[in-house]
Amino acid sequence: MHTPVTIIGAGLGGLTLARVLHVHGIPVTVYESEASPAARTQGGMLDIHDYNGQLALEAAGLMEEFRAIVLEGRQAMRVLDPDGTVMFEQGDDGTGGRPEVQRGELRQILLDSLPDGTVRWGHKVSGTRALGEGRHEVTFADGGTVVTRLLVGADGAWSRVRPLLSAAAPEYAGTSAVETYLFDSDTRHPEAAKAVGGGAMIAPSPGKEIFAHRESGDTLHAYVMLSRPLDWFAAVDFTDAAAATARIAAEFEGWAPELTALITDGDTAPVLRPHYALPTGLRWDRVPGVTLLGDAAHLAVPNGEGANLAMLDGAELGKALAAHPDDVEAALTAYEQAMFPRSAEAVTYEGVEVQGIASENNTAQGLIEMFTEERR
């Protein structure tokens, strides 16, 4: 295949695609808005699943590097009632199919696997337009442009490439997370550390939830989730860390102190993360020379599948292009026909769309029943 591939976005999906293309000898350039790989923190833990994310890493030839960064013991899971009672606990014996890694380390593995110069940093896209015959022009914020015959939007929720294919835009999903970190938890926050345990902890309740994970060392990373309109969060002054913390903690009045400590004892200012989603099952008609992957194609409320799906999208698209070296459109058609149902299925459980924390079933017992059903 002689048509160079232009990828917008150096997240996990875009980099997986670039790596698989490189493995197959297909020229590729990735344009990324961030100034460097270290421009911002890359987020927390990711569980990489044996049915999607790990398949992508196998296609990329990076399983050995992946295994080297797996954090042992982090697949452990516990479910607590708001009063702190442990309702469910599952250990990590190392045989589970969802090993945990730090997102930043995984991204670095992908970056290190690419030739120097593959990723062009500091290229923020301001717009895209079709030129006809499958050609597209990408314009950058600095006024520069690039013309390509094969454009892939791996640029996330607010993709600048998506408008070439669809008028769909993300809409607020009705829930948001407030992110906190507790450092040196075993010595400085022992009760919270004990509640979280060695892996992940979920304390659910209708309309609210506390999810926390033990990351590298004894850092606790928590997501405090609430089902509230955007206007409600807009009234919280997140520039005043103490006031914001107090306001969020007030929504969990009566909960066990070892759980609310994940809000009140944070060692960083609380960060608001609103949840947005594209319409479930979004599809578009085939447009020559362009496609999407990951959140650009199927943004959903966080459910543990997003990064895994993005990586699998990248791997499957790369394999499709390698399998159709003389027919780009056949490759893109094959990729999209598989990607559309795969991404729609990921936001359902037993064929029913997952309702999330707003559901009356978002309780410890409801969660335990779901886990039990999954193991049958």
Overall description:
Monomer. Belongs to the aromatic-ring hydroxylase family. TetX subfamily. Its EC number is 1.14.13.-. Helix 2 (53-59) runs parallel beside helix 11 (306-323), helix 6 (190-196) crosses helix 9 (257-264) and helix 11 (306-323) runs antiparallel to helix 12. It is globular and about 65 Å long. The longest helix has 18 residues, at 306-323. 32% of the residues lie in helices and 24% in strands. It folds into two domains: 5-71 and 102-170 and 278-345, FAD/NAD(P)-binding domain; 172-276, 2-Layer Sandwich (D-Amino Acid Oxidase, Chain A, domain 2). Mean pLDDT is 93; it is low at 349-354. The chain has 376 residues and is α/β, with parallel strands linked by helices. The chain starts with a strand and ends with a helix.
Descriptors for this entry?
five-stranded parallel β-sheet; D-Amino Acid Oxidase, Chain A, domain 2; alpha/beta; 376 residues; FAD/NAD(P)-binding domain; 13 helices
State the helical fraction: 25-40%
CATH level 4 superfamily of the largest domain: FAD/NAD(P)-binding domain
Q: How much is the radius of gyration in Å?
A: 21 Å
In CATH, the topology of the largest domain is named FAD/NAD(P)-binding domain
Which spans of ≥5 residues are poorly predicted at pLDDT below 50? 349-354
- Strand order, biggest sheet? 5-4-13-14-15-12-16
- Tell me, briefly, the overall form: globular
Enzyme class: oxidoreductase
Main location: cytoplasm
Protein name: Flavin-dependent monooxygenase
Keywords: Cytoplasm, FAD, Flavoprotein, Monooxygenase, NADP, Nucleotide-binding, Oxidoreductase
